[in-house]
Amino acid sequence: MEKAFTFFLLTILLLLHHVMTQTNITTDQLALLSLKSQISSDPFHFLNESWSPAISVCHWVGITCGSRHQRVNSLNLSSMTLTGTIPSDLGNLTFLISLDLGSNNFHGKLPQEIAHLHRLKFLDLSFNNLRGEIPSWFGSLHQLEVLNVISCIQINKQEIIKDEKKKQKNYPSPHNSLCFLKKI
Ligand SMILES: *[C@@H]1O[C@H](CO)[C@@H](O)[C@H](O)[C@H]1NC(C)=O
Ligand SMILES: *[C@@H]1O[C@H](CO)[C@@H](O)[C@H](O)[C@H]1NC(C)=O
Ligand SMILES: *[C@@H]1O[C@H](CO)[C@@H](O)[C@H](O)[C@H]1NC(C)=O
Ligand SMILES: *[C@@H]1O[C@H](CO)[C@@H](O)[C@H](O)[C@H]1NC(C)=O
């Protein structure tokens, strides 16, 4: 009897924990609004007009949601002439499969929290002004098939070579500032 009660109690606690730590589309919305707040210039008003809490996140410019979970699975802000930094909150978009921020003026450091995007397959950060080296935590993005960071991040060559050996990935670039990674 006592055992059964303990079991019951544990089950309730686990359920409670699950409910309290569960994320939903609101999580995605908050992460995206955080990104918007870091944009200092949006001359063509791409985000200012569309990224509003009054509109469902899945209808915002540059956003695609998955049909199954109704969570953001693609963020594409490429060539929108945006200036800003990338907030760590972007790592909360855990359903993200594709992230394209290419050809803008994102600057500053790439937050380590991007490593939380375990479903990420496509990442394009090319033609921005991000600084720093390709971080070692890139290796934790196991689903990543395409990584395009041309002229945006200085590559830590040793890291790449190490990673290449480990994962048999292909880096056709001879230059330090160019990197294209493709899973074979
Ligand atoms: C998302 O979850 C939070 C609690 O974690 C809840 O308050 C909120 O109503 C949920 N939003 C939706 C759209 O389900
Ligand atoms: C993102 O997740 C972290 C850790 O769970 C949390 O502290 C932060 O408030 C979240 N950011 C947003 C914008 O919701
Ligand atoms: C952005 O939108 C808000 C309200 O929609 C407006 O007050 C503000 O002037 C706009 N900013 C720019 C830069 O257009
Ligand atoms: C993002 O949008 C641009 C312009 O519409 C398009 O050329 C590009 O292929 C898109 N990126 C992805 C990853 O779909």
List the helices and strands and how they pair.
Blueprint: H1 2-21, H2 25-37, E1 39-41, H3 46-50, E2 63-65, E3 72-76, E4 83-85, E5 98-100, E6 105-109, E7 122-124, E8 129-131, E9 146-148, H4 157-167, E10 180-182
Parallel strand pairs: 3-5, 4-6, 5-7, 6-8, 7-9
Antiparallel strand pairs: 1-4, 2-3, 9-10
Bound molecules: 2-acetamido-2-deoxy-beta-D-glucopyranose (4 copies).
Describe the structure.
This is Leucine-rich repeat-containing N-terminal plant-type domain-containing protein. The protein contains four helices and ten strands; from the N terminus they run H-H-E-H-E-E-E-E-E-E-E-E-H-E. With 184 residues, the protein is α/β, with parallel strands linked by helices. It has one domain (25-182): Leucine-rich repeat, LRR (right-handed beta-alpha superhelix) (Alpha-Beta Horseshoe), CATH 3.80.10. The strands form two sheets. The protein has a six-stranded mixed β-sheet, with no helix packed on it. A hairpin with a 6-residue loop joins strand 2 and strand 3. It binds 2-acetamido-2-deoxy-beta-D-glucopyranose (4 copies). One 2-acetamido-2-deoxy-beta-D-glucopyranose (NAG) binds at residues 76, 78, 98, 100, 122. One 2-acetamido-2-deoxy-beta-D-glucopyranose binds next to helix 2.
Strand order of the largest sheet: 2-3-5-7-9-10
In round numbers, the mean pLDDT is 80
Biggest sheet architecture: 6 strands, mixed
Could you say which structural class the secondary elements and strand pairing correspond to? Answer: alpha/beta
Separation, N- and C-terminal Cα atoms: 56 Å
User: Which value, in Å, is the CA radius of gyration?
Assistant: 19 Å
| N-to-C series of helices and strands | HHEHEEEEEEEEHE
Named CATH topology? Leucine-rich repeat, LRR (right-handed beta-alpha superhelix)
